[in-house]
Amino acid sequence: MKRPECIRIAFACGIVAVIFTIFSARLVHLHITKNKEYKQLAAEKHLMRQVIHAKRGMILDRNGEILASNLPVRTVVADASLIKNPAAVAALASQFLGLKEADVLKKISSQKKYIVLKKEVPEEIYVDLDAAMQKAKLRGVTFEQDAIRTYPNGESLGHVLGFLDHEGKGIQGIELTMNSLLAGKNGYRYIERDRTGKEIMLYRGAEEEPVHGKNIRLSIDMSLQSILEEEIDKTFKELKPETVTGIILDPKTGEVLAMANRPCFNPNEPGKAEPEQMKNRAIIDMVEPGSTFKIVVAAGALNEGTVNEKTSIFCENGRFLYGGKILKDHHGYGDMNVHEILVKSSNIGSAKMAMLMGGDKYYEYVRKFGFGDRHGIELPGEICGLVHPPARWDKLTITRMPMGQSVAVTPLQITMGMSVIANGGHLMAPHIIKSVEDLDGTKILEKAPKVVREVVPEKTARFIADALVGVTQPGGTATYARVNGFEVAGKTGTAQKVSAKGGYAAGKYVVSFVGFMPAEDPRFVCLIMVDDAKIASNLNYGGLVAAPVFSRVAEKAARHFDLTPTLPPIPLQDMPMAKAETLNEATH
Amino acid sequence: MNSPLTPQTRSNPIQLAKAIKFIAFAVTVGALGLSYVYLKNQQFALGEEIRLTEKRIKQIRAENEVLLAKTTELSSRRALQQGMMNGSLHVVQISGDKIARLTPASPAMEDGVLRTASNERAAR
Predict the structure, then answer these.
(1) How far apart (Å, rounded) are the C-alpha atoms in residues A213 and A179?
(2) Is there a contact between A560 and B69 if contact means CB atoms under 8 Å apart?
(3) What is the model's pLDDT at position B19?
(4) For chain B, what is the largest distance between any 2 Cα atoms, rounded to a whole number of angstroms?
(5) Which of A70, A123, A560 is closest, CB to CB, to B123?
(6) What is the reported pTM?
(7) Contacts of A82 (CB under 8 A, 6+ apart)
């Protein structure tokens, strides 16, 4: 080969080599130096992290009745970059979603990649729209899975169940306290999509299964809840009080069987409720308990040996001057024993028992009964009430507190206090969660009854219970609490309402009745509390307003429990005219 | 100028063994390539089927949940009570002999109280 030929060949090879070297260098640059940047760009275009939503657990009553469940819905989302025919998409979407075509067209003309067209679209509409889109070969609209929480019983048990915010987090009731268990944990999956937005299964990346939320079984019995709701609703409508609260619980286990308040709200529509309607007054309201609190001083004085069953206390004929103030009884009484003091609900007798005990000892019993402490029920916002220690008492407190003044307690605390007497002297921990279960019903946690402390021995509790039976017998303050065929034990409470301006509000009362049945072997304790019933003052007493409601609830509850009557039927009593009309009659 | 070629060097005999090897190699590579493409297509097709099946399962689950929610709503106490109130539902009294009791029965004649058939154990 001649030299010039070799040179030419070498030159040509050199050029080719240089070109390929440049290409190689560029490839190296793209694949190694720019790797991260282009990978990111490609990922943004095709790769996405798909969230696999965890199913929120249901809330059930003790018998498995569904109280809160999920309704699957869809969020319709448009990706304008994938829409080739906006007008056709707008026409179709607006037809199925009930939106204005012009509005949809305006939205999808914005070239954004994530445009929410409509939220909470029912599943059946989604199916139809998806089919229509496919038929018309239109793309660019996706349907994200979502769910709305539904409470099939509406207002019933609303305060206990609570509701969710727009992000699906519990913000009240069981939905809040049990949110971590109910919510579960969303899963994820990395997917790649083709140019039409469809997932390419071949390139499905790492994924993690969702952990579905647990079902929460409450101790609530919806049959009892229904009974309680019906009665307090009737009371709320008839007497037009500011609030009515009712609680039924099992004194032996501390299980809350029913809890209701009026006014109430519908958790399906929390936005329509006023803040006042949303309060679970059974645990967040504190009131002066009135005479229901007398069980504390009686039990304490008996247990400490300050008095015995036969000790006679002079009740000053209804007017007792102490600390410069006169303490009055409803009627003038002379000498009475503990039994009679409770039956007649003597303020003076109770005050004298506390004075005999001494402030420190009495305060000790108030606390032992659970007043001044949170019970730790699984509901948000429980307050501890207000019980001042003896160091902060004035001279009159020792005479006022035993009759339920100068102390503020929650309705739940009153009910738990009465449970101590009903169950033989134990303070139980109240609970409303019965168990936590997997979706298949396997129990993963079960709440056992928990004794907080022994407050008084069984003998003392039994003595007080016997006296409380007397309260509902002829001559007692709550004959209207009686139930045909059963022995009822209980105590009325009539407390003047504390005014926001200080002192007491004239003519306004918080009346209550808390009792248990059957007295000899209680199956339930029930509290009915009515705040400021609009009736004449001479009728606004616990024994006339709250006791009849208790009687009706207890009678129906006895049927529900299938309790065997132990007493002969009692003759029908004329009911007091405890109705709203009475106010008009009394004032005119 | 080059020397004239001998008859042996002028002929271009086909080396059959080598050609067969080459053809076999080419066919194998081609078949492998086609198989790869075929398998990829199959994978895509199966993937699409899986995707559609997953979508269908999801849809059925969602429909199931919708039905559960509707059943719950319709059989809720509130709905049943409303049905009772507006007369679309009514309760038929159970005769005493049809009631299975776990606790002794208390005849209505004895105490004048209407007894129910609630199951005590279920309520506990």
Answers:
(1) 9
(2) no
(3) 92
(4) 140
(5) A560
(6) 0.83
(7) A139, A140, A196, A197
Q: Cβ B123–A124 below 8 Å, yes or no? A: no
User: Cβ separation of B123 and A63 shorter than 8 Å?
Assistant: yes
Give B-chain residues touching A153 at CB under 8 angstroms: 76-78
CB count, 10 Å around CB of A533? 29
- What is the reported pLDDT for A228? 96
Residue A578 has pLDDT above 50, yes or no: no
For the segment A232-250, the average pLDDT, to the nearest whole number, is 95
How high is the pLDDT of residue A420?
96
pLDDT grade, residue A200 (50/70/90)?
confident
Nearest residue of B to residue A199 by CA position? B51
Question: What ipTM was predicted for this assembly?
Answer: 0.75
Tell me what pLDDT residue B35 has: 96
Residue range A222-269+278-438+445-587, CATH number? 3.40.710.10
Q: Which CATH architecture has domain A49-218?
A: Alpha-Beta Complex (3.90)
Q: Which residues of B lie inside 8 Å of A (Cβ-Cβ)?
A: 40, 43-44, 46-48, 50-51, 58-59, 62-63, 65-66, 68-69, 72-73, 76-79, 81, 101-104, 106, 111-120, 122-123
How much is the mean pLDDT over chain A? 90
Pairing of strands A59-60, A215-218: parallel
Residue A152 has pLDDT above 90, yes or no: yes
Continuous segment of H or E residues that includes residue A18: helix A3-28
Buried b (16+ CB within 10 A) or exposed e, A255-277: bbbbbbbbbbbbbbebeebeeeb
Contacts with B44 from chain A: Cβ below 8 Å? 200-202
Give the helix ranges, DSSP H, for A147-279. Answer: 158-161, 173-177, 179-183, 222-239
Nearest-Cα distance to chain B for A123, in Å, is 7
Chain A, chain B: beta-carbon pairs less than 8 Å apart: 99
Closest alpha carbon within chain B to A70:
B69
Instruction: Encode pLDDT of A311-356 as tens digits.
Output: 899 998 989 998 888 998 888 889 999 999 999 999 999 999 999 9
In chain A, where the domains are located: 49-218, 222-269+278-438+445-587
The CB density around residue A341, as the number of other CB atoms within 10 Å, is 26
Give CA A457 to chain center in angstroms.
33
Average pLDDT, whole number, for chain B? 78
Tokens 């009430």 map to which residue? Answer: A385
| DSSP conformation letters of A96-153 | HHT--HHHHHHHHTT--S-EEEEEEEEHHHHHHHHHHHHHTT--SEEEEEEEEEE-TT
Taking CA–CA distances from A227, the nearest residue in chain B reads B77
List of chain B residues whose C-beta atoms are within 8 Å of the C-beta of residue A1: none
CB contact under 8 A, A145 and B58: yes
Distance from C-alpha of A21 to C-alpha of A149, rounded to nearest angstrom: 64
Give the per-residue pLDDT at A549.
Answer: 94
Given a contact cutoff of 8 angstroms between Cβ atoms, the answer to whether A375 and A416 are in contact is yes
CB distance A569–B111 less than 8 Å?
A: yes
User: What average pLDDT does the segment B60-85 reach?
Assistant: 90
Q: Scanning every residue of chain B, which has its alpha carbon at the shortest distance from the alpha carbon of A62?
A: B123
Where do the structural domains in chain B lie, given as residue ranges? Answer: 16-92
How far away is chain B from the Cα of A206, in angstroms, using its nearest Cα? 16
A166 is written with which tokens?
Answer: 């727009």
Residue from A209, A562, A567 to probe the interface with B (highest B Cβ count within 10 Å): A562
- Could you give the CA distance from residue B30 to residue B36 in angstroms, rounded to a whole number? 10
CB contact under 8 A, A69 and B72: yes
pLDDT of A401 reads 94
